[in-house]
Design a protein that fits this description.
Strand content: 5-15%
Strand order of the largest sheet: 1-2-3
Order of helices and strands: EEEEEHHHHHHHHHHEEHHEEHHHH
Radius of gyration: 26 Å
Distance between the termini: 50 Å
């Protein structure tokens, strides 16, 4: 998904007599506004700064001198730059979640708060949810994409019951009914439902800890959702042969080769797509890359090998936006092109996938190219590392995994892989 938007900065048009269109314009100390348009919507946002018309360069979108109140162009232009970057990050987070925001959702993400509402309204389940988002995102330093996930839960809860209260939300029958709503109306898998319930419980715990509600009955609710224990999780990854097949493949089209190179780089370094997306040349050293992860805010150091270095060298002389190291595109577009690319490269081994919706087990078989996504690269890195005999502790240093538990699905895959390899001796 690529959300197109236009953000134009301009002084607000004000007249000395508001209702008289012939009255003189106020030309000094007027609010500097952002005229934002996206997806057929238009939003006016105040920057919090005031400016004089005479020092405003509308063509280049910047201030050129001091205001009548003494504010300098440097201060105003720095605020404009910060606002532009903030808008860009907010839309990028919505793109990652494959969602186009409403005006209200954008303004909430931009301001972290909605317009003032009455005292009675602020005590409702949903308006207090806004306070929860604002506080937790600040304290936990949530990424914009995490904030969007919690906002999406809020939207689902509103659709489920717009009159929801803390008393009702803590009841087992309400939480069970919400599960049925997610399963039947939203048609979500059990694994996704389990995650959404955890998000709801996070909010209810916060409200209890804040003494907003004396009720913590939510803790007693332990839903039984088949297939959420991780035992039947299908780990999709490329085998060593498939990886080399893709690495050496020439798609004959520049945009597909770009996607291939970025994907292979992640297979060789373990980077998440969110991290390779913002990887800058300044983070590339002689023999390693060092960067701060988008998801966990951890600083990781990953050594380079011949293949990963070759990919970086291929693009080192080509300038990219924001001094990025590689020709990255949006996650959604990358996923679309990746399926086309792997199909062309004939990576089409049948893959069996099992999941549950309610009590029903769903079994599906797809060619591998149809189920591969950008995150497959990180899984491929872990599996290739284990296949090559690299210790799990070393791999965890590279990937930032915090416990051996998170590595278990990969180890189980390798055990099965070893069984298949050993059967080759049965000739």
């Amino acid at each position: 998904m690529n959300i197109k938007y236009t953000a134009t900065f301009k002084p607000e048009i004000r007249r000395s007599t508001p209702k008289d269109l012939n009255s003189p314009l106020i030309s000094e100390n007027v609010p500097l506004m952002i005229d934002l348009t996206f997806a057929g919507q238009r939003v006016w946002i105040t920057t919090g700064y005031r400016i004089d018309f005479k020092i405003w360069d509308g063509i280049n979108q910047k201030a050129t001198g001091k205001t009548s109140k003494g504010l300098t162009a440097k201060e105003i232009n720095a605020a404009i730059g910060s606002a532009k970057e903030k808008i860009k990050k907010i839309f990028k987070a919505f793109e990652v979640s494959e969602k186009t925001p409403t005006k209200e959702e954008f303004l909430f993400s931009f301001r972290g708060d909605k317009k003032k509402v009455s005292t009675k309204q602020t005590q409702t389940f949903f308006t207090i949810y806004n306070q929860f988002l604002k506080e937790r995102s600040a304290k936990s330093e949530w990424t914009p994409s995490t904030v969007v996930k919690f906002e999406n839960i809020r939207s689902k809860l509103l659709e489920f019951d717009k009159d929801l209260t803390f008393e009702k939300a803590n009841k087992e029958e309400t939480l069970q009914a919400f599960i049925v709503f997610l399963r039947d109306k939203k048609e979500l898998r059990n694994t996704t439902i389990a995650k959404q319930i955890r998000f709801v419980k996070t909010y209810l715990k916060w409200a209890y800890d804040k003494d907003i509600t004396p009720n913590n009955d939510y803790k007693k609710f332990t839903p039984s959702l088949k297939g959420t224990d991780g035992k039947n999780k299908t780990v999709i990854f490329l085998s060593p042969e498939e990886f080399l097949q893709l690495y050496n493949f020439d798609a004959k089209k520049e945009h597909l080769n770009h996607v291939k190179d970025v994907f292979c780089f992640c297979c060789l370094t373990g980077l998440r797509y969110s991290d390779v997306f913002k990887l800058q040349r300044s983070e590339i050293k002689t023999d390693f890359i060092q960067f701060t992860t988008q998801k966990t805010d951890h600083t990781l150091k990953v050594e380079l090998n011949d293949k990963s270095r070759a990919i970086l060298d291929k693009y080192k002389a080509i300038p990219f936006e924001n001094n990025k190291a590689l020709p990255v595109i949006s996650n959604q577009k990358a996923n679309e092109h990746l399926k086309t690319l792997l199909k062309m490269a004939e990576i089409n081994e049948p893959v069996n996938i099992s999941y549950y919706k309610g009590g029903a087990r769903i079994n599906e078989t797809h060619p591998k190219y149809a189920v591969v996504g950008t995150h497959t690269a990180r899984r491929t890195f872990v599996c290739l590392s284990l296949y090559l005999g690299i210790k799990a502790e070393v791999i965890m240093k590279w990937t930032g995994h915090s416990s051996h538990t998170t590595m278990k699905p990969y180890v189980d895959v390798m055990d099965k892989f070893k069984e298949i390899e050993m059967k080759k001796f049965n000739f």
